[in-house]
Amino acid sequence: MGIRQAKKNEGKINLMIRNGAADPSVDVSITPIYCVSCDRQLPHLYEHTGSRYGQVGTINCEYCETPIHCTDGDNIVYELRTSGFVMNYYHLYRLEKEIWITLKESYGYDISARHKGSTITLETVVDELSKEFKIPAATSRQYTSNDGKITMFPNVVVKWFSILEYFDLYK
What we know:
Layout: E1 2-5, E2 13-16, E3 25-28, E4 30-31, E5 34-35, E6 40-41, E7 46-50, E8 55-60, E9 67-72, E10 79-82, E11 85-88, H1 89-92, H2 97-107, H3 111-114, E12 119-121, H4 122-133, H5 155-166
Antiparallel strand pairs: 1-7, 2-3, 2-12, 4-7, 5-6, 8-9, 9-10, 10-11
Helix pairs in contact: 4-5
């Protein structure tokens, strides 16, 4: 349990497809970290290895040495709270319900019908959309969070953003 620097820019972003839901629940194991003390994103991604009663652990900022205390919602990691900064993965990784509804209604990609009652990874969705629509998923493009604070994302999220950009859904 805890949080530690990721060895690679990889990690699972699980999508749990509930019966009848238009959008999946999100469970994340790789994350950027932001320090509110020095107003900077840390230069590495971090692996979230679990929590106990919502307490994930503490890491020190690599720039200013400030301890960054990390907490989550306990069982399913849909957000990470870090010393005054909340990373809601639905918003940060652009996995909001509206995205899934647009993919279904405008492009015929219905994640709920395809994967009803199962857990898949975001990588699976990226692969399906890339193949079906012949979209080259970029990995070197630079993206930024809506608030401008996060600029380094896991590789699979960069690929996801490039898919969203193809469909004009990256806003």
